Amino acid sequence: MAEKQRIVFLDWLRAAACLMVMLVHASECVYSDDYSFSFPSELARWSIMFIQGFVRPVAVPLFLMASAYLLVPVKTGTRAFLKKRFVRVGIPFVVFLFLYAFLPAVWGEFSWAEAWANVKQAGINFIPRESHLWFVYMMLGLYLVMPIISPWLEKVGKKEELFFLGIWAFTLCFYIFRDIWGPVFGECWWNPYPLFYYVSGFIGYIILGHYIRTYLKWDRKKTLAICIPVVLICYLFGMWQFYHRSFIVDTPEKLEMHWQNFTIVAGLMSAGIFLMFRLIQKPGKCYGIVRKISEASYGMYLMHMLMLPAIFSLLNPLLPVPLTIILTAVLTYCLSFLISRLISRLPWGKYIVG
Question: Would you say the C-alpha torsion 172, 138, 295, 54 has a positive or negative sign?
């Protein structure tokens, strides 16, 4: 019975999105430290452009849409929903906040004095060593509002939901407006919540996931006819912008502007790829391992940056850039999966890897 209740394509999607995240972070090891960037060669520039151009805009949105597909509208009471989500997601998150804070001191990455400073910081915000955990803060915030938006989703119809998504899609163009004109629609340093603030951000991907599940019943032919051109056009546009901007900007923020989560490129690519994944209806021969990876994906995400930089540093002197990126991501993916599975078998494993 449990097997029939699983949504097969979501397991495939989570397994793929988890690999995408690791490809993003392996790519960043080549050219960026979040504050500056440089390319060791022209091959590196093109490798980043082709690999990151596909995975960077969609990895996080796909996870969010998968969560929305399953969780909204919330069917249980608010207290039960939040308790389950915060136990499953929040406790492992806290564990890894502290692991990243002091564990690298064991192998000499920083001193024990720095480790203690990191531990104190862990109660406030993530440290640079664990910057990928920004995602969990955001996800926990979305859990807080899911019970609030659920009654609205149950009462409104297709037109109202589409109206919201239309406004949200408009906000996905604001990064272009800001690049040209600066702050827009009431943005200023004393007002960080301007006109469209409350219909923008990650909540849009939650609504989009629900809208796709509830209202988009496209067949295979229509899905592919629409989604392939949309994804391809956005992919090419994002790559072109990255290449052009790599010669004229001086920060990763400006360089990667068209790949960020709140861009029209990310919104359209994520919707298109999600819809194409939804075409997977039968488990297939590999589904057994895919399902196990899907179940372990949260633990894999939490731990992967403990090992990815080390794997990259071993491979980088030996291989061309594209192979280094791909093998770093794949080896980290496999190792994270094995460790996560082993920890999950421990009596308290679910409180460590989710």
Answer: positive
